[in-house]
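Re: that chain you flagged

S.,

Sorry for the slow reply, it's been a week of failed gels. I finally had a moment to sit down with the sequence you sent. For the record, here it is as I used it:
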Amino acid sequence: MRTGFHYRDGQLFADELPVASIVERVGTPLYIYSAGALREGHERLARAFAALDPLLCFAVKANANLAVLRLLADRGAGFDVVSGGELARALRAGAAPDRIVFAGVGKRDDEIAAALEAGILCFNVESVSELERIEALATARSVRARLALRVNPEVDPRTHAHIATGTRGAKFGLSRAAIARAAERCRASEALELVGLHAHIGSQIFEPAPYLDALERLLALWDALRADGHPLRLLNLGGGFGVRYGEGPPLDLEALARGYAERIGQRALRLVLEPGRSIAARAGLLVGRVLHVKRSGGRRVVVTDTGMHHLIRPALYGAYHTVWPVRADSPPESAGSAALEPADVVGPICESADVLARERPLPPLARGDLLACFEAGAYAATMASTYNGHPLPPELLVDGERLRCVRRRQRLEDLLALECDDEIALQPGPSAAAAAQARS
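Prediction finished late last night. Pasting the structure tokens below so you have them in one place:
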């Protein structure tokens, strides 16, 4: 049985099911996920890092569908969450709380409280102020919060500026001086337990060197804190492992694992990794239908019923996604250039940025043809919006010859359901401005 997305007899298959047949039942636009490809993505990482036996915490922000999370939880995956909503999703999917890490630079009090009550593995702490809030909330509940301090290693990951998170001046992580203050606060507190260090330097990184540079800086800090009596045991090195959208080799995971092992040496620690895209990206597909084909300034423009509201990465990052007809004589990697003509594949959104593919060589297309946007299993549905009043597409999960709807198509009624005209009565009292002046 073949898993993932592949062409056979002139048409695109998802595992063992023709995509065109799925569309006949469900319509467009829609997301399709391959259960087999998700399992293979998780297994590929587990195999590459096997010698280090890490806890692989899937980044829920990459794909938060409960069926996807449940599939990974059943394989023993942990989860990296960045909000109370993602925490609730991971728990609903059957995640073990002691395999959940809570990252994110802006955790609210209610989110911290929910994580404390769930008994998660640890918080990745991003500021001294956050540490103080965790301490206060843990003290109020008579529990002890486990913490990993997120270090900003000031390493250039050589990626897009919007997804670089470990450079000097980034909003993420603690400076070396702040780490020292936070560690001492933990030592003095009965409500805090410092159990590790964390770093995440960015995403879409294709070379081991930035990771290894960051690791060396973390290990120097690790050794200093251990020598100072802090019982560290978790080393969380984040994720961001590069995935090629189109041609080119991905990050060499085996080489990275060897580099990690060489530098960690005999230190007694549990390694934590936070992969998301590297598991899910190639396991997802976004399918749309051609609405119109026109000429503009000598360019062929293919207008579809899907766009930046369903896949924002091209507009947000200038990201590349393979786009190809669902029915085609050849797959995109082996198509001859003779019958191809450049085209801009655009969506229905009233924004000039709503372009899924620009000047892309494509075969002739006509109204009604189906187009597939590949590598849409990560940061597609989770970043989708209802902009311009478009309901969200459904999400389907294919497992061999079995097809399941794992998120229904949103309806126009759903878009309006939360809107209201409720009057809110405020207690009489001083205005906010007057109260602030009085406090000062």
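What I noticed first: The first strand starts at residue 5 and ends at 8.

Talk soon,
D.
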